[in-house]
Write a structure and sequence with these properties.
By secondary structure, this protein is an alpha/beta fold. It contains ten helices and ten strands.
């Protein structure tokens, strides 16, 4: 496992590769947990792995937690060591942004609403750093977490519309035993808040059960989720959207995203389910499927 801190070191790694296995990138902001490690494991099955660790300033709005975001590269390297990715690219802020950035990526329609509504500029920052990482690393495949479903779909639209030569994989959300989606931001939660945070997954599981029981009215599903979210401090959104374009679905069938965001002080938490709903029933689905332009 080679630690690469600069573009020059990364370039040396790329040009010195002695394998024709696909190169697979797993972008992260560090503070690695079992969710990230599952992405790295999946990546290892696809080819030779590079993990990037970079807390990207341009995707945090003023007042968000850029300064507080947990950073511990030594711990991240220890967590990655057993999985033995070929390289970890962990650039400094100055290495990624040597000058003030003058060109950035404008997200497509999947960035409208959901997290895009409350985090102005967030997805432009995400797309810009993801495109930079894809250009610097040059992977054949990139693995992202389904936990950040809107992020995946926004990246999918960029890859499709800008002809970025990479195949995208979304890895299922990795959860704690009680259902809470693993997140670096869970570290902000007190024991008491951590218990209340269970409401997010309970809400999604309730909606899934209602769908399995035949409920097809999205207003009823949203209301059922909102009721389960009573323990959180504030609900930001609870929505049912269509995958992959995130349009409001005319009918409750096909691939659907049940998505929610809530504040459990001091954290802002998000979670979702991606489901295929048909006459045959309800099953988990992925965001990038054969036939989607980005897959
Ligand atoms: P982050 O470091 O939070 O930016 O996450 C890096 C990657 O890991 C993103 O593609 C996330 O969607 C993914 N990820 C984060 N948490 C989870 C989780 N609990 N399960 C699956 N993937 C995750």
């Amino acid at each position: 496992m080679r630690l690469l801190r600069t573009r020059a070191e990364l370039h040396g790694f790329r040009t010195g590769r002695a394998t024709d296995r696909p190169l697979v990138l797993v972008p992260t902001m560090g503070a690695l947990h079992a969710g990230h490690l599952a992405l790295v494991e999946q990546a290892s099955r696809e080819g030779e792995v590079v993990v990037s660790v970079f807390v990207n300033p341009t995707q945090f709005a003023p007042g968000e937690d850029y300064d507080a975001y947990p950073r511990d590269l030594d711990r991240d390297l220890q967590a990655l060591a057993p999985l033995a990715p070929s390289a970890v690219f962990a650039p400094s802020r100055a290495e990624m942004y040597p000058r003030e950035i003058s060109v950035s990526v404008v997200p497509g329609p999947a960035a409208d609403g959901l997290c895009g509504a409350s985090r102005p500029g967030h997805f432009s920052g995400v797309l810009t750093v993801v495109l930079k990482l894809l250009n610097l690393v040059g992977p054949d495949v990139a693995v992202f977490g389904r936990k950040d479903a809107q992020q995946c779909l926004v990246i999918g639209e960029m890859v499709r519309d800008l002809d970025v030569p990479v195949r995208l994989i979304d890895h299922p959300t990795v959860r704690e035993p009680d259902g809470l989606a693993m997140s670096s931001r869970n570290a902000y939660l007190s024991q008491e808040a951590r218990t209340r945070a269970q409401a997010l997954y309970r809400a999604l599981a309730t909606a899934r059960r209602r769908l399995e029981d035949g409920e097809r009215d999205t207003a009823v599903l949203v209301e059922a989720m909102r009721a389960e979210l009573a323990p959180v401090d504030a609900i930001e959104y609870v929505e049912v959207r269509r995958v992959p374009d995130l349009a409001v679905p005319a009918r409750t069938e096909g691939r659907l995203l049940l998505a929610l965001a809530a504040r459990v002080e001091p954290a802002r938490l998000i979670d979702n389910l991606v489901l295929e709903v048909s006459d045959a029933g309800v099953r988990d689905a992925s965001l990038f499927e054969q036939g989607d332009a980005a897959s």
